[in-house]
Amino acid sequence: MDFRDTPEEAAFRAQVRAVIEEHLPKGLAGTDLGFGGEGEVPEERRPLLQQWRKVLMDRGWIATHWPKEYGGAGMTPGEQFIFNEEMAEHRAPTFGGMGVQMIGPILILYGSDEQKQEHLPKITSGEVTWCQGYSEPGAGSDLASLQTRAVRDGDEYVINGQKIWSSGAHRADWMFLLARTDPDAPKHRGISMLLLDMKTPGITIQPLINMAGEHGFNQEYFDNVRVPVKNRVGEENRGWYLGATLLDFERSNIGASIGLRHTVNDLVRFAREASRSGSVPVRLTANLKAELAERTIEADIVKLFAYRIISMQKRGLVPNYEASMAKLFRSEAQQRLAQTGMKLINLYGNAVAGRYAALRGRISTMYMTSVAATIAAGTSEIQRNVIATRGLGLPRG
Ligand SMILES: Cc1cc2nc3c(=O)[nH]c(=O)nc-3n(C[C@H](O)[C@H](O)[C@H](O)COP(=O)(O)OP(=O)(O)OC[C@H]3O[C@@H](n4cnc5c(N)ncnc54)[C@H](O)[C@@H]3O)c2cc1C
Question: Is residue 131 within 8 Å of residue 163, measured between CB atoms?
Fold first, then answer.
């Protein structure tokens, strides 16, 4: 494979880079909005963030893969890849979260005109935050087993049940959720997708705090929550099939692979400085040096997986088990990197904040949060099943 940009790609990259270098406010690099949107960022940084959001919004760069008529940039997967690569290299914050990545594309393809008019402009302007209500205590990997019920009552559905692990639900204005509308149909065929205003009476949101002390996800209880039928997306009982749809979306996750490389570089810099200053308790043993070399190689492998996926997409192919291979390797590499980092910073790893927190506590936090990487967005076991069956053609167990 030729990794060099074509002349057109090089010109596009230069254009993206110039905008970032000219407009990304100083001090904003590295700000992570997570799924909670701007509400996750300390008050004093929000004006800078809003300034940066406007730079992206004016160019349609919040929803790069959406068609221009809906406020996107209409970028090809190849352009999206370059854009995401440059944004990650500069550690530039991105916006839009699940609104841009998940529900927006579904509405563009299947939403009613009214739904499009109401929701799409507010997603590309970053005015509203969305969360995803799919998982339930008894339905994660086997999502089609979900039990939350939506019963038709005139021109409303009445929802009862529970969702869990909903990232950013405590900050979200809207949720797109899957609920069972026909309990007697085969399980994939009795599910509908509904748009739920999070201010509707009957919703109780309870925080779930992860072991790093972060409030990222939640569980919600629905007690006779009424949703207008016009908030159903697509046909009744066909909701299962909507989720699988994506616009021409860059699936390489190049941003995450560059993030890994940044962390490796930070650790190497930290190790060099610590060994020069004889800093205690950092101990750069021979084993640890070898581990850092391994992590460096792995970060490059993650990047090669990303290149493989984008090269498929550029040829009009749809990555399948290849995306599972990339996700599996990336999330496990992330955990190994966090473990190596913790060995390196040694006792400083106990401090997440304050003057003794090495690398501003990022490694200690990553050590705790990366545990979820092999669960979120499909567990490693599920990815291995996909690789075994669809990739290797082995029979299903
Ligand atoms: C950080 C984070 C954010 C999340 N955000 C959201 C969100 O915003 N919205 C949302 O709806 N959900 C969200 N989730 C939930 C996520 O989608 C589920 O956790 C995931 O699908 C796994 O489901 P589960 O937790 O029910 O585990 P289970 O499916 O119960 O799995 C338990 C164990 O059994 C294994 N297993 C299950 N089935 C098989 C199989 N067929 N073969 C082999 N092994 C199997 C799994 O790999 C796992 O080890 C989030 C999860 C995390 C960790």
Answer: no
Whether the pLDDT of residue 167 is over 70: the answer is yes
Alpha helices in 4-112 (DSSP H): 7-23, 46-58, 77-89, 97-98, 104-110
Q: pLDDT tens for residues 168-191?
A: 999 999 999 999 999 999 999 999
Ligand 1 environment, Cβ below 6 A: 132-135, 140-141, 165-167, 217, 372, 375-376, 379, 381-382, 385
Rounded distance between C-alpha atoms, residue 260 and residue 35, angstroms: 19
Contact of 167 with 128, CB cutoff 8 Å:
no
Task: Specify the ligand 1 atom closest to the Cα of 138.
Answer: 26
Beta bridge partners of 176: 132, 195
Alpha carbon distance 286, 278 (integer Å): 16
Q: Count the helices and strands in the chain (H runs, E runs).
A: 11, 8
CA dist., res. 385 & res. 369, Å (int):
24
Is 250 annotated in the active site? Answer: yes
Structure tokens at 264: 């490796």
Cβ atoms of 344 and 288 within 8 Å: the answer is yes
pLDDT of 388 reads 98
A 10 A CB-CB count for 363 gives 26
Rg over alpha carbons for the chain, rounded to the nearest Å, is 22
Please state the atom number of ligand 1 nearest to the C-alpha of residue 134: 11
